[in-house]
Structure formats: structure tokens, C-alpha cells
Specification:
- The chain is an all-alpha fold.
- About 65% of the residues lie in helices and about 0% in strands.
- Helix 2 packs antiparallel against helix 7 (about 105-120) and helix 4 runs antiparallel to helix 9 (about 165-175).
- It has one domain (about 15-210).
- It contains ten helices and no strands.
Length: about 210
């Protein structure tokens, strides 16, 4: 009697050798709801990094969002805190689990994101991959994502200053998914530049305001 083939859920959640873009494409092509809850169910522990990538891809666009992405950043911060304290599975309120990612407008963004990920996969390869399995690394990963997401959340509306911190989160998340330390460090660098820019401009605004009094 032949053994039964693995279920799709197991195939997705444990196929670490499968390209990230292929996993996202498989999820998009499936008939399950395109919600945060479905990502958590299908991808298991890998859903941390994947959620960071999918949620922060929107504020990473070089467009003023006027605070419209605050919910995405708030969800990202909550998930990042769970990674910091060592949780292996994500908890979200039922309302946030129903957050739809497959709406037509967001679907276009996901398809564009897939193209960028495929381009990165041509150059990325596992580097220091064992490091990503350590709990301390996961906690540091969560702390970095929380700090950058908070910076994006606090960036002034219509300024576009949330772009670089958000892009840093996306690149760090892809580095973790691809087990590529160099890519993850590039994300840290991008995020740090973004935070430094926000602080520098904020300091300049405060000084200008004080001089005008």
C-alpha cells in the first residue's frame, strides 16, 4: 500500500527548500481565503517573516500614505513582539485574522512584489543559515522589526518618511525567509538610514520651530 502524499498544508509550511516566490504564488493561486489567518495556518513558524514582508510592502512604497497604513504597521508590531518573547505561533485577534490581503488592489501589489522577490532570488543564497534557527536570533529579528515598524508608524503623514524603515522590514523578512544573512543585514542598513532620516528631519523641524518663536 502506497503512503499517502503530504497534505498541501504540510508541503507549504515545511518546504524550506522551495523558493519564497513559489510559496507566495502557490498561496495566491489556492482557493483558501487570502487573509492573515490563512497565512498563519498554512506557513506555520515561517509566517512571521512572511507577514512582515506582505504587510510592510504597502508602506514601503515611495508614496505618502497619510496614515492609511497604520493598521498594517500596528499588526506588524504586535507580531514582532511575539517573536521577541519567543512565541512559535502567531496570535492575532479574530478581527485582524480576517484582514484581507487578496483584494484586487492589493493583489496587484502582491504580483509586483513577486516579481521583485524573484529578481532577488537570482542573487540570494543561504548564508549563515543555521543562525536563523537560534532563539536569540529570532528575538533580535523581532526587536528590529518592531523598532522599524514603530518608526514608520510615527513618521509624519504625507512625508513619505515611512518608506525606508518599511523597506528595511521587507528586506529583513526576505533575508530570514531565504536564510540569507547578507540580505537581512542589508535590510537593517536600509531601516537604519530611514530612522536616521526621520530623526534628522524631526530635529531640524524642532529647531526651526524654536527659532521662529
Amino acid at each position: 500500500m502506497r503512503p499517502l502524499p503530504p497534505t498541501p498544508r504540510r508541503a507549504v509550511s515545511h518546504a524550506s527548500s522551495t523558493a519564497v516566490s513559489d510559496q507566495i504564488e502557490h498561496w495566491l493561486a489556492g482557493d483558501q481565503p487570502k487573509t492573515l489567518g490563512s497565512i498563519i495556518s498554512l506557513f506555520g513558524s515561517r509566517s512571521f517573516a512572511l507577514i512582515f514582508v506582505l504587510l510592510m510592502a504597502v508602506p514601503a512604497l515611495p508614496l505618502p500614505t497619510a496614515g492609511a497604513t497604520h493598521l498594517l504597521e500596528a499588526v506588524t508590531m504586535l507580531v514582532a513582539l511575539q517573536l521577541v518573547v519567543g512565541r512559535r505561533c502567531i496570535w492575532l485577534p479574530a478581527r485582524w485574522q480576517r484582514l484581507e490581503l487578496g483584494a484586487p488592489s492589493r493583489r496587484k501589489l502582491l504580483i509586483a512584489l513577486l516579481r521583485r522577490i524573484r529578481w532577488l532570488e537570482r542573487f540570494s543564497r543561504p548564508r549563515a543559515s543555521r543562525l536563523f534557527e537560534r532563539r536569540v536570533t529570532r528575538s533580535v529579528f523581532g526587536a528590529l522589526v518592531f523598532g522599524l515598524s514603530l518608526s514608520a508608524f510615527l513618521a509624519p503623514p504625507f512625508s513619505g518618511l515611512d518608506t525606508l524603515p518599511s523597506l528595511g522590514v521587507v528586506v529583513i523578512g526576505l533575508g530570514v525567509l531565504m536564510r540569507d544573512l547578507v540580505l537581512a543585514l542589508l535590510g537593517v542598513l536600509l531601516g537604519a538610514i530611514g530612522v536616521a532620516t526621520i530623526l534628522a528631519i524631526g530635529n531640524l523641524v524642532i529647531k526651526t520651530s524654536l527659532h521662529s518663536l
